[in-house]
């Protein structure tokens, strides 16, 4: 009898069965994390609404708004439009950036989907270290050929975070200019609208893609900026911890030292380095507690010393120092052969 009881005890454990809790919304996998074409937060939100077969307005007002709006304003959140919930400015591509509202939206979505990687769809990793003023577009821009290719190859239609940046005006994949107005009705597109549908115009509902082969010559400076921003996006998930301003200032001081070492070798470099060196000095001394300008300072400075934006953020101080030394010595060897120091740095600017 006692043996039989043991069997029943084993089979019918008195402990409650552990069932993993289900997420309120689908745990939809974001596209391209760890690459330069990481999906944007607003694109993810659109796809999430689509997966649930509801409009973006319904998803935001009925599931998300109560988590991002303070309780005083909560009562009427279900009847509000998206632009009033996010505020006019946050319904723009800047929602993919580093604002407090972006943080609230990411927290709400991570809570609802049980995902922990959604902050990589924004620039929150760089909050406080990169200046966000004038960094993001007011309205969407897109590559019509990327949309068309996604559709033709039956891939998921989505918008990369890269397109939210004001200084990204070209698609390096198709060598074409990004569009920012619907080719059918000429309207501009908000990042988050009540009835957003990826690849289609919010207003006339027509397809925004095309396969017109309108290749253009992309100047090197534009290419460097787009590549630099792409590296910044791709690097966020591989950083051991979010970058801090004092650490970045230390790395910039090393670069300043490297510039000055180059000038001691060849004073003629002063004309090319002078302006950047001046900006660098100001950032390091007078503005060392202020976020750094990505497009006018970090990317050109990294290019001048042949260090990638990814290396600048990923490597620690000693790693950056080693790369700078190797680059400097390589250039010395090269220039001693050609008896010219013109290529001491990558002076294409
Ligand atoms: Zn493209
Ligand atoms: Zn249109």
Which class of secondary structure composition applies to the elements? mainly alpha
Given the structure, what is the number of helices?
A: 12
Mean pLDDT: 87
Side-by-side strand order of the widest sheet:
1-2
Shape: globular
Order of helices and strands: HHHHHHEEHHHHHH
Give the beta-strand count: 2
Which percent band covers the strand fraction? under 5%
- Fraction of residues in helix: 40-55%
Number of domains: 2
- Which spans have pLDDT < 50 for at least 5 consecutive residues? none
| Ligands bound, unique | zinc ion
- End-to-end separation: 89 Å
Rounded radius of gyration (Å) = 25 Å
Q: Main beta sheet, described?
A: 2 strands, antiparallel
Overview of this protein structure:
The chain is an all-alpha fold and about 350 residues long. The protein has two domains: about 210 residues, no CATH class; about 100 residues, no CATH class. The chain is built from twelve helices and two strands, in the order ααααααββαααααα. A two-stranded antiparallel sheet has the order 1-2. A hairpin with a 4-residue loop joins strand 1 and strand 2. Helix 3 crosses helix 5, helix 8 packs antiparallel against helix 9 and helix 8 runs parallel beside helix 12. The chain is globular. Bound molecules: zinc ion (2 copies).
